Amino acid sequence: MRCETINNKAMIAIWWTSMSVFMKILWGITLTASLIFIIQTVMTFIGADTGGMDTDFDGDMSGDVPDAGVDAGDPSDLGHTGMNLYTFRNLINFLIGFGWSAILLSPVISSTAVLVLIATLVGVGLVVAVMYLFKWLSSMQQSGTINLYKSAIGCQGSVYFPIPGHRAGEGKVQVTINNSVREYAALTDGEALKTGDQIRIVEVISDSTVLVEPVESIII
Fold it and tell me: Which regions in the chain score pLDDT beneath 50?
């Protein structure tokens, strides 16, 4: 096992020393960009703060979230549509497209100038593709977004998780808004509500919490 490890290290050393300075720089840039891309992707999926990784080069943040109550149907209210060209994320996307295409095409393209030109076009194409992908995802999110402050008052539903009385704690409710079933944290001013009780939204406290009251069943 130790011999195999030594042999592998020797092969890597030989491979590295046999490359030109251009290819060494290319590999370094590509591997660094790929590592940053992986970190960005993982942090995005786990919902972690990416810090300055998404900062625009002009100093604006591309990840601003619209205030509660703002009509989410207006594309201008969305901070992160992916359509701002000058972002660190787009730079990483360009370097990945440029680097990997140059590495893969280097055995078949002998001219460095042609290789750089083609790799640049691939990098720019990848940036444009990702930007429009973000725009499409953003439009899909907008179309499925409900403005709670405008649409929720008076909507009815049922208690999903018991709600303590007199605003002593939060429960959960499922309500139908614009023909879509949504779940929100809920408070009530009256007596405690148990799972299955029918409710009506009387006030929106925040973009994730509503105030509800029981809906009396009508027995005929």
Answer: 49-83, 142-143, 218-220
Residue 195 CB partners (closer than 8 Å, separation 6+) = 159, 160, 161, 162
pLDDT value for 86? 63
What pLDDT does residue 80 have? 42
CA distance 115 to 40: 28
- Return the pLDDT at 72: 37
* Burial class for 209, CB neighbours closer than 10 Å (0-12, 13-18, 19+): middle
- Number of structural domains (the chain) is 2
Show the DSSP H helices in 46-170 as ranges. 88-105, 112-143, 148-151
Supply the range of the domain harboring residue 198: 148-214
The answer to whether the pTM exceeds 0.90 is no
Between CA 53 and CA 44 the distance in angstroms is 11
Domain boundary pick from 87, 117, 143: 143
Asked whether residue 157 falls in the same domain as residue 135, the answer is no
DSSP assignment letter at 72: T
Q: What are the residues facing 204 on neighbouring strands?
A: 210
Give the DSSP letter of residue 67: P
Question: Is residue 94 within 8 Å of residue 106, measured between CB atoms?
Answer: no
